[in-house]
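@channel sequence for tomorrow's demo:
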Amino acid sequence: MKELASLARMDGMAQAELCARGEVSAEELLDACMVRIEALNPLLRAVVTVERERRRPAGAGPFSGVPFLVKDSTPWPGLRWSWGSRLFAAQAAHQQTPHGRRLVESGLVCVGKSAMSEFGLLASTETLLEGVTHNPWDLSCSAAGSSGGSAAAVAAGLVPLAHANDGGGSIRMPASACGVFGFKPSRGRTVSAGMRGTDFGDMTSDHCISRSVRDSALFLSLTEDRSSGMPVGFVREPITRKLRIVTWTRTVLGTEPEPPVRRAYEEAMTLLSELGHVLEPIEPPLFSGPELGDAFFLVAGAAVASIIDRIDQTRGVPVQTEELEPFTWALVETFLSRGPDALLHARAVFAQAVRTYLETTRGYDVVLTPTLATEPWRIGHLSPVLKREELIRRTARTNGYAPIHNIAGCPAMSVPLHFSESGLPIGIHFAAAPGADALLLSLAYQLEEARPWKDCWPPYSIPTLF
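structure tokens (generated this afternoon):
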């Protein structure tokens, strides 16, 4: 078997190529992955369910034999499907989604489920069901969320890539906090992973968190909805033309990022200028930040309320207080207290925000902002037991850039270009017009080539420790 750390350093495509050449077997890739998980997951708590049956790849696709994780928001046959919630702690999935079938056909081998915040509601992966997922760069820091388990597992070298999804920054925030690549596709770009049917679900895009841009680009090509009118196939090359890039740093609340984030952002602007792109600083779109945040969490509360209603009708016993976290209950209660027009009002707020955003950014190729306004925060800063108002305030302070792209259906990505003086990763955020996924991925290739991050491993990772 290949030496443990050498396999951990390889992205998914490299592992698949080794397997295709016969230099390593699919069984050896799986065995090595399990050893890595057993060695480091007790410290990080990134993986919440392990697939104990050793399965050969069902597909002979381009990722054949490569181990990966599925975020616990998504069903995977035979595995627990908890959504990070005590309400579903004993639930197991039996069905496969269209998205999952594409991944099986690609040859990816699911080795387990990754941790998430309850129902993906919070930007920190710490739940009353599973406990805390630690950031491999600093164990006292959050891995962010809601896809924190996927980001921590990829950053630590447990798997080369992991499924994730993003309803308001849930791929991009943990990618930034953990120093890996996180891409959110355009709305409707990929086949269903089972999240659609509510306003919150329809804002959510399924994709992956990866170490390399090419893994992300290949993953996207394999899961595209070919009837969407948007498929572009496998984007393989860096961009060769100059881009017109609009820039701002003010968050939706009207605040500026912390000094370490500002320095990282300025370094990114310098890099982009050196690469020949034209940067144009402007005043950001004028939203009512508190109103937009209130609408976002109303939509989230409505989604959970529909789950509770379904459970209440089917099992005969109402959902109990201790089955959901305090923050989740607070969102549901707030939604229900607003009356029958709450969702209509939230949709109107969204529609106005989208019009403002698209008008402000029209004519530009790319929008450049920080991913997060702060460095990775300490565990407990976004704990689900805090009061609703305080959690929303803290969330808005750090996540002041990402959600508008979910609301508008734009592709967006966090690129791991920088580290603070304290050694923590700081992602830089790029977004484009709906459907312009290929443009963003081409830019990501160029940035990866200019500032390679593949050898940047955190202290609590397989390559560093072994």
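heads up for whoever presents: DSSP finds 16 helices and 15 strands in the chain.
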